[in-house]
């Protein structure tokens, strides 16, 4: 009698554990799907703002100061780090047999690193000429020519 | 080492080996950073470049290109060095010897910010 109760209660506990485990995976799947949705929106917003800034810089539009690029670089690095962590979570879910929705799109939405994005800054020839004239006051001899670069 | 045809127009933020003329009339090949815009560079008048040196000089508008930077490999340089923005000059096309590499966009941004500060404001 006791032995039978022990077996039943063990099986019961096992079923509860399994259910809780599955629920945890299910909860994780839902949370990751939300991260995917929010992430895709953020990536799109980032690309739009980054492209607008680069275009503004190229046109020398004062509404897009160069300094804004420093903030964009920090934001992009944060997004890239978060994306790589979400992809690891997707891989865990896939390995467990519960792939989240939107995983394929999330993977293919690659963000280029800041360093790989072209930056065209207009620098006026007159300004460079003025800088050169000022710089020419520095004797050339203080810059030895024998650098091994 | 990255090389390309000297006929190819240099692009802004590329590092080129140039024939650098000295005050005494002698010249020596050395790396320099292209700072003029691509529109100017494509006009076949040469390019504005800033001097690069591995020597440290306590002058204004000096920016380090550190060998530890993630994008250093793409520069084509061999060791940490400095860009001296106070030492810019217009280099004729035939003195641009070959392309060595290019700066990463973040380093280019930092230099562009410094360059805008370095350029004297016109008298109003």
Range of helix content of chain B: 10-25%
Rg over CA atoms of chain A: 28 Å
Estimate the mean pLDDT confidence of chain B: 89
| Strands side by side in the biggest sheet of chain B | 4-5-3-2-1-6
Biggest sheet record of chain B: 6 strands, antiparallel
Q: What does the radius of gyration of chain B come to?
A: 14 Å
Question: Main beta sheet of chain A: strand number and arrangement?
Answer: none
Rounded mean pLDDT score of chain A: 90
Order of helices and strands of chain A: HHHH
From the N-terminal CA to the C-terminal CA of chain A, the straight-line distance is 86 Å
N→C terminal distance of chain B = 46 Å
Low-confidence sequence ranges of chain A: none
The interface involving the most residues is between:
A-B, 38 and 51 residues
Structural class category of chain A: mainly alpha
Q: What is the multimeric organization of the chains shown?
A: heterodimer
Outline the structure in words:
The complex is a heterodimer of chains A (about 150) and B (about 120). By secondary structure, chain A is mainly α. Chain A has a domain at about 1-45 and about 75-115. In chain A, about 70% of the residues lie in helices and about 0% in strands. Chain A has helices spanning about 1-60, 70-95, 105-110, 125-135. In chain A, helix 1 (about 1-60) runs antiparallel to helix 2. Helices cover about 15% and strands about 35% of the residues of chain B. Chain B has helices spanning about 40, 105-120; strands at about 15-20, 25-35, 45-55, 60-65, 80-90, 95-100. Chain B is globular. Chain B starts with 13 loop residues before the first strand and ends in a 6-residue tail after the last helix. Chains A and B meet through helix 2 and helix 4 of A and strand 2, helix 1, strand 3, strand 5 and helix 2 of B.
Task: Kindly summarize this structure in a few lines.
The complex is a heterodimer of chains A (149) and B (124). Chain A has four helices and no strands.
């Amino acid at each position: 009698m006791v032995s039978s109760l022990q077996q039943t209660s063990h099986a019961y506990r096992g079923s509860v554990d399994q259910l809780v485990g599955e629920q945890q995976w299910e909860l994780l799947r839902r949370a990751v799907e939300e991260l995917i949705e929010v992430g895709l929106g953020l990536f799109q917003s980032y690309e739009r703002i980054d492209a607008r800034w680069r275009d503004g810089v190229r046109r020398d539009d004062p509404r897009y100061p160069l300094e804004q690029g420093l903030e964009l670089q920090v934001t992009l690095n944060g997004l890239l780090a978060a994306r790589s962590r979400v992809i690891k979570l997707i891989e865990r879910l896939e390995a467990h047999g519960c792939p989240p929705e939107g995983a394929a799109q999330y993977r293919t939405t690659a963000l280029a690193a800041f360093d790989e994005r072209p930056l065209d800054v207009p620098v006026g020839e007159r300004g460079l000429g003025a800088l050169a004239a000022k710089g020419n006051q520095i004797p050339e001899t203080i810059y030895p020519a024998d650098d091994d670069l | 080492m990255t090389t390309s045809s000297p006929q190819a127009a240099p692009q802004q933020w590329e590092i080129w080996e140039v024939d650098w003329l000295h005050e005494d009339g002698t010249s020596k090949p050395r790396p320099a950073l292209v700072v003029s815009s691509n529109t100017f560079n494509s006009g076949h008048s040469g390019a504005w470049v800033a001097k690069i040196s591995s020597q440290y000089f306590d002058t204004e508008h000096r920016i380090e290109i550190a060998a530890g930077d993630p994008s250093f490999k793409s520069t084509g340089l061999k060791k940490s060095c400095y860009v001296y923005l106070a030492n810019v000059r217009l280099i004729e096309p035939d003195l641009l010897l070959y392309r060595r590499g290019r700066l990463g966009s973040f380093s280019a941004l930092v230099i562009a910010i410094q360059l805008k500060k370095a350029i004297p404001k016109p008298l109003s």
